[in-house]
Each structure stands twice: as structure tokens, then as C-alpha cells.
Amino acid sequence: MNQVELRALAKINLGLDVLGRRENGYHDVRMIMQSIYLYDEVKIEKMSIPGVEVATNLDYLPTGGDNIAYKAAKLLRDEFRISDGVKITLNKHIPVAAGLAGGSSNAAAVLFGMNRMFRLGLSQKSLMDRGLKLGADVPYCIMRGTVLAEGIGEELKPLPDMPKCTVLIAKPPVSVSTKAVYEALDSKEITAHPDIDAIIKGLEQHDLRKIAGAMGNVLEDVTIPMHPVIARIKQEMIEAGALGAMMSGSGPTVFGLFASRSSAREAQKRIREKALTRQVYVTNMHSVRRNQHGG
Fold this sequence. Notes:
This protein is α+β, with helices and mostly antiparallel strands. The chain is 34% helix and 28% strand. The protein contains ten helices and eleven strands. It has helices spanning 68-80, 102-117, 124-132, 138-143, 178-186, 196-204, 208-214, 220-226, 229-239, 261-273, and strands spanning 3-21, 27-47, 52-56, 85-91, 146-150, 155-158, 166-171, 216-217, 244-247, 254-258, 279-284. Strands 1, 2, 3, 4, 5, 6 and 8 form a seven-stranded mixed beta sheet that branches. Strands 9-10-7-11 form a four-stranded antiparallel beta sheet. It starts with a strand and ends in an 11-residue tail after the last strand.
């Protein structure tokens, strides 16, 4: 096997709570992660010359040691003393620095693909352990599906599949620093926590309205005052018929859950007409039981 082509899926957070800050600067979280059909195409090829090479369709992305996909390839090459070089081509569609785990998903795809290509024999758990060295979201991006994440995001427990629905993703043209958002959160008291257990109950009952009604993200209280356009996009989605709309991760991306594709299309049209953002995508949930990694 000389090359592997994979789909690196984006994720959204159906619920995100922060329980506290550790001495090492990491935060204890409790969140529900969900993968969606918005993805980057990741191609991994063997090279006769040693080393790691990364190419991407986005000229502003780093392609050297600062790129997390590069780090993932180097980690496995070094550990298993792989003599072949590796070329990684990232055709990116997931918005960058958007709270959708695009980089982490790229790294997960590289670990998964190199394990298959070089027949390393690593289990999913072994891949996830290595992924954690690269970033807190990488283990989840290897597992995918509907998952409860605790600890710093590395303690993962699969949940019942999300009910079928249409998802609208809107990424406004602003940049958000995850580090700055968490620092701002640390300087204020969290007075309202999302009801993660109510979302889990909704999943167990396969009740889309219950899930949407219980969604919450504690980081909205920090990011929305910095970027009010997030609240405006949420409002447009709700007015167009979203059962629920929320910021994903530390933002700035907003997602809405819709019972019908036509109402999601209507929200997409309204958001574009009001020039809130051009990056608006209609998509679906991803179920691990329907489609294994590598899609």
C-alpha cells in the first residue's frame, strides 16, 4: 500500500461545560462531541526520500513542524523507525480556527492512515493515546460519532447516535483564539452551566427536540461579547426554524439543528443575504455505526 485517501470529519459540541482549571493550565471539561459531514480530504503517500512533507490548498497554513498533521506523521515515523518518507496532501474544506477541530481531525486521519499503510498494528485505543500527545481533541477525532468527553477532553464514552437531522454550519469572518477565550473565562465566575445530563437523556430517548432544547456552551458568555455577529447568526437560524442554535467549541462557528432541509436552506439564504458570512454549509450528522473512519 503506497497511498491512502481519507476524510477528516469536522466536529461540533452539542454541549460544552467547563468545570475548573488545573495547575498546568488545562481545563476540566464535560462536553458532548458530534462529528458531521463537513470534511477535509487527506492523502498520505510513501516517498522514497526520508522525512515528512505537507502540501495544502490554503497558502496561509504552515506546512512544516508547526502543522499538527506533520507532527502526527513525525511521531509515528520516529517511534516505529519508518525509513520511508511520508507526503501528506490536505485539501481543506473545514474552516480554519473555527471551533470545528479541523486540525485535530487532520492529525487523527494521519495517525489512522499511517497505521494502515505501514501495518503498524495499533488498536484504536493505542492511536488515541498517541493522539493525546498532539492535542486534546485528537483522540475524539479518531473515535468520532456521538461521544461524552470529560477530563481535559481525553476521557471518552460513546453515546447513542444523534437522531437524523439537518445541520447548518456558519463560520463568521472573525478569528478567535481558544487560549484567549479560556483566559477570559478564568477571570470571571461561571454562573450558569449547561445541562449535559439532559442532552444525554435526549440522546437515550432519541428525542431531537429535547437535545436541541438542552444544548448549551459556557464559552458563549466570553466569545459572543467579543464578536456579536455570533449572536446575530444564532438569531437568524432560530427565526428560520432551527430547533436549537449554538456556538461550537470556543467559536466563532455557529451551528443550527433543523428538522427539515428546506428550513436549513432558508436560514442559509438569510445569513448570506444579510452578509453575516459567506461560509455557510448545509450538512448532516455522522454515525460511526454507519461509516467507519476513512469514509
